[in-house]
Write a structure and sequence with these properties.
The protein has 767 residues and is α+β, with helices and mostly antiparallel strands. It is 46% helix and 22% strand. It has a six-stranded antiparallel sheet with strand order 11-10-9-14-13-12, with helices on both faces. A six-stranded antiparallel sheet has the order 16-15-20-19-18-17, with helices on both faces. A hairpin with a 4-residue loop joins strand 18 and strand 19. It is elongated. The relative contact order is 0.06.
Length: 767
């Protein structure tokens, strides 16, 4: 019968093993998580700073645009008031004509031409030719343009008002404010826009960064919990082992064995028998405890570790110590064990430890470290971690890639100074970031901008975090270029408006002179033809360039709308000037025709094609229906085209959308009859005799409601051209039903009185 094995030297067996080192450097994991969270916070802060900067930049542009609009509106009011003063208008006429709230004789308190009152209104000053000052009061609501969503406009004195854009908080409400001075007026135009400190975008960023940070935190907390539990169980086992050294040898197996944690073994090389205790038997899932052969023992060891277990027992290493790890099979499948022991009196004895929790904890720690490494590599910018001696411990792939560091430089233990010196070789420009000595911006040789920040850790280490700001720098450069272009366009627009205002003032002065002396008017218009057209060409050209956005977007759809209004107004002004110059030539007897043998249908067709766009814009049908075989006549092709075009455009003005204009060319008793007939508002009988006179227009209520613009020279020019051809013009109209205007041109050279054109009821012939 086999005797119960003896443990040998109790002191050596019961001596607690050296406390194993933690499988995962908890301090390093904590630093990594701190660095990851800090980089996310830094990124969120930068995004918020960029958003605030964009808001302030936009606010400054809006204030500058509002200032330009207010100045243009006030200058226009002042110019209209000066024109009325030069024409001798009364104060009441000035108030109605310029739409002032009140008008009074008052001189400006300073040299400015506009003043802000205590009630927020604006007073505009102008003087007449005798030096009498007159002021008109404008409400600020009538000066402001249509407000954008969420914007509030305000006028304030220019003195003491800061012009830079800024954030202000009133009653816990944060707003973006920007003011711009109105040149020459002592007034600043301000724009207010709500800008809450914490908005929906900030909440979204907070949630996104919280979700990014949560998985690594949970993994680290789980890993730390497992490690602490394993170490606590091991310490309890060691304490129980140490407290049982005083027990009798008969109770040694049970006193030292701990259920589920470890059991005891004894190996006698002389008998080749290995004895295990009851708990060791339960741990390994063996068939029985007590003595067994080595083959029986290794049958509960997985095949990969059987040879290692045999070698460890039969040929122990130096120091006669046994230490081998293996995995169980059968009932102990999935468990991990460690066979530990030593020799005493030629017999080996020791313990079999259940290290399954430790192995699993090690696997978890490796996965957590891999997760931390993945999170570190997921950071888009460079990241590096230095210990208290400023030696490199961890870094991500972006750190070596962005700064083009070799493997012999970016390695564990490399000093901070060495890495930074190597990094400086690939930096083109480096400058500090504000007052922070540990933050800097650098432009690399690869044209990449990096913002690099160094921060101290709680363990006196160092974290280096970099963010790629290349896109931000490019946006800043694009924004600066856009601001320069916008500033240039605003200056050009102001200069163009000034030219237009100057031209309007000259025209008003010329009109006043014309009313005093008709002969002086004719001479002035004859000499100033080129001078009037040249600035108009500039206005048309530059306005068309801005409306087409040739050099890039204007920054606001309102600027484009203003440019189109300027272009339309300038074209209208050019048409009026051409009509006035032509009329002055008729009055001075300088108008000449270039007579030639022409096809009248071709000339009329050219006018119809030229007017089709206007008719389409007004949704009016324009029909051209000439007779076949209309004979040629002797006449001026341009003049006939101009006459027809004048008649068609007049019909378009007085025809409602959905109406119809019909143009015909017929031969009637030796005359070519060109007729333009519409179904518009018609002309009252009392207005017919006044038409075809210079500067005369229809004064019916319908015409006033339509706000028809023009000089009243179209019919007068048409009548004059017809008479120069030896013909006449006939107007037929019925109020509410439409108008027909006929031009009769002789086919052969004949006196206008030699043939009579047909007449109709409700008509007026101008011959």
């Amino acid at each position: 019968m086999a005797t119960k094995p003896r443990l040998g030297n109790k002191a050596r067996v019961s001596a607690p093993p050296t406390r194993p080192r933690s499988a995962v450097p908890l301090g390093t994991l904590s630093l990594l998580m701190l660095a990851f969270g800090g980089s996310l916070a830094l990124k969120a802060f930068e995004e918020r700073q960029f958003a605030d900067s964009a808001i302030l930049t936009q606010q400054a542009r809006e204030a500058e645009a509002l200032s330009g609009h207010v100045r243009a509106d006030l200058i226009a009011s002042r110019a209209r008031m000066e024109g009325l003063l030069l024409s001798g208008a009364s104060l009441e006429a000035i108030r109605r004509g310029v739409k002032f709230e009140a008008v009074a004789e008052r001189a400006p308190p300073t040299s400015g031409w506009a003043q802000l009152t205590d009630k927020g209104s604006v007073r505009v000053f102008a003087t007449d030719s005798q030096g009498r000052w007159v002021s008109g009061l404008r409400a600020k609501e009538s000066i402001f343009p249509e407000a954008l969503a969420g914007r509030t406009f305000h006028l304030a004195p220019a003195d003491g008002i800061p012009v830079e854009s800024r954030f202000e908080t009133v009653d816990l409400e944060r707003s973006a404010v920007a003011c711009a001075p109105v040149e020459g007026a002592g007034i600043s135009a301000c724009v207010f826009r709500p800008a809450p400190l914490f908005g929906v975008g900030d909440l979204n960023r907070l949630m996104i960064y919280g979700l990014l940070l949560t998985p690594p935190l949970l993994a680290v907390f789980g890993l730390v919990s497992v490690i602490r539990r394993v170490e606590r169980e091991k310490q309890e086992a060691e304490a129980r082992l140490a407290s049982s050294t005083a027990r009798s040898e008969a109770d040694e197996w049970r006193s030292f064995e701990v259920s589920g944690v470890f059991g005891l073994w004894r190996w006698d090389p002389a008998t080749h028998l290995l004895t295990i205790g009851p708990e060791a038997c339960a741990l390994l899932g063996a068939n029985h405890d007590g003595a067994m052969t080595l083959d029986e023992f290794v049958s509960v060891v997985n095949e990969d570790a059987r040879r290692r277990v045999r070698d460890a027992l039969e040929t122990p290493g130096g120091g006669r110590q046994v230490s081998v790890s293996f995995q169980g099979v059968g009932r102990a499948s999935g468990r991990h064990f460690e066979l530990m022991g030593g020799v005493a009196d030629g017999v080996f004895s020791g313990a079999i430890l259940n290290v399954t929790d430790r192995v699993q904890a090690h696997l978890i720690s490796r996965r957590a470290e891999a997760l931390a490494r993945t999170a570190l590599d997921a950071h888009p910018g460079p990241f590096a971690l230095w210990d208290s001696r400023k030696r490199l411990t961890h870094w991500n792939a972006a750190f070596a890639r962005v700064f083009n560091l070799d493997k012999d430089v970016a390695q564990t233990g490399a000093s901070y100074d060495l890495v930074m010196a190597e990094l400086a070789k690939f930096v083109r420009v480096e400058r500090p970031l504000g007052d922070d000595a540990n933050a800097r911006e650098m432009l690399l040789l690869s044209d990449t901008w990096i913002r690099l920040v160094d921060r101290r850790t709680s363990s006196d280490g160092l974290i280096t975090v970099g963010v790629d700001i290349t896109a931000l720098k490019r946006q800043e450069a694009n924004l600066q270029r856009s601001e320069r272009r916008l500033r240039s366009m605003v200056e050009e627009l102001q200069r163009t408006r000034g030219q237009a205002q100057e031209l309007a003032e000259k025209y008003s002065e010329a009109k006043a002179r014309a009313e005093r002396a008709s002969q002086a008017k004719g001479a002035f218009l004859g000499n100033m033809g080129h001078e009037l057209r040249t600035p108009l060409n500039h206005i048309n050209g530059f306005a068309e360039m801005m409306a087409s956005e040739i050099y890039g977007p204007l920054g606001s759809e309102r600027y484009k709308e203003y440019a189109e209004v300027i272009m339309q107004a300038a074209k209208h002004l050019e048409e009026m000037i051409n009509d006035i110059l032509d009329m002055s030539k008729f009055e001075a007897g300088k108008m000449r025709l270039s007579a030639a043998r022409i096809d009248p249908v071709d000339a009329v067709d050219g006018a119809v094609k030229l007017a089709r766009r206007r008719a389409a814009d007004r949704e009016v049908a324009l029909i051209f229906d000439p007779d076949d075989d209309v004979p040629d006549i002797t006449g001026d092709h341009r003049a006939i085209k101009q006459m027809t075009f004048n008649l068609i455009t007049n019909s378009i003005k007085f025809t409602d959308p959905g109406g119809e204009i019909r143009v015909t060319v017929t031969e009637e008793d030796g005359w070519i009859a060109i007729r333009v007939k519409d179904n518009g508002i018609g002309i009252s009988p009392e207005d017919l005799p006044r038409l075809a006179q210079p500067f005369e227009q229809v004064n019916s209520p319908d015409a006033k409601e339509r706000n028809i613009r023009g000089t009243g020279l179209g019919l007068a020019l048409t009548k004059s051209f017809a008479e120069m051809h030896g013909g006449r013009m006939l107007i037929e109209s019925e109020l509410g039903k439409g108008t027909q205007v006929s031009i009769f041109l002789p086919i052969a050279k004949a006196s206008p009185a030699s043939a009579a054109a047909p007449t109709r009821a409700k008509s007026h012939e101008t011959a």
